[in-house]
Amino acid sequence: MSVVSLLGVNILNNPAKFTDNYVFEITFECLEQLEKDLEWKLTYVGSATSDQYDQELDSLLVGPIPVGVNKFIFEADAPKTTRIPDADILGVTVVLLTCSYDGREFVRVGYYVNNEYESDELNADPPAKPIVEKIRRNVLADKPRVTRFAIKWDSEASAPPEFPPEQPEADLQPDDDDYGADELEEDAEEEEGAEVTAEAEAAGVASATAATADGDAEMAGVEENGEPAEEDELSEEGSVDLENESEDELEEEAEGDAVEGGDDAMEVDEKPANDSSKPQEVMAH
Which residues of the chain have pLDDT under 70? Predict the structure, then answer.
């Protein structure tokens, strides 16, 4: 369980000019006394093609942290346009708000940022060299993406497990003599069933061959006796009708089968049940 839970982040100046500072109001809850400070950082992603254009806009330490709900203001500088490719200044990018304890990051909040000109004329026909003074930013504050990480806090008991627990007693136990016996029995039953099926199929083929021979003999006898041929024609017509009915049924069944076939949008942690208590202001330095 995380000792620190992020309850809310408000962007106090949004939308704003591209050159304005970022101002965040951050509220979090601490469940136990911490020995060290929390480190908050704000990073601007300068280009989607390479992380070499990422800029750490600012970082600050918050502490000492009292137990309970705490709140502070985090203000960071605007990104330096000299470190951003001209083609990536306009359009959509990302800012990342992260928090770490003792060098271990435990929460990350990502926001999409849309940079565009203030006038429709410039947006319709932007100049080759961006005019930074006329660009405004809009942070999509209602659609943050939050990622949480389990970390070790002050006590060893809070450390997340890195590997499955060792079970030395399992290696000392002898293997069961009947291990795999069930699988062998199933294989033997399957083989016997296959043999029985093959014998039945062979018997069926022999019976069908004998019946066909008898039928041919009877038909030959009928022709020799000079019986009329209308019965054969009726039989053929009847067989055609049965085949047509069979195809129609198959089509109906196929139609019936066709009918039957017919990274988290981030949410911050829930606020504590006792909302009546006013958040404590903590010191940022």
Answer: 158, 161-184, 193-277, 283
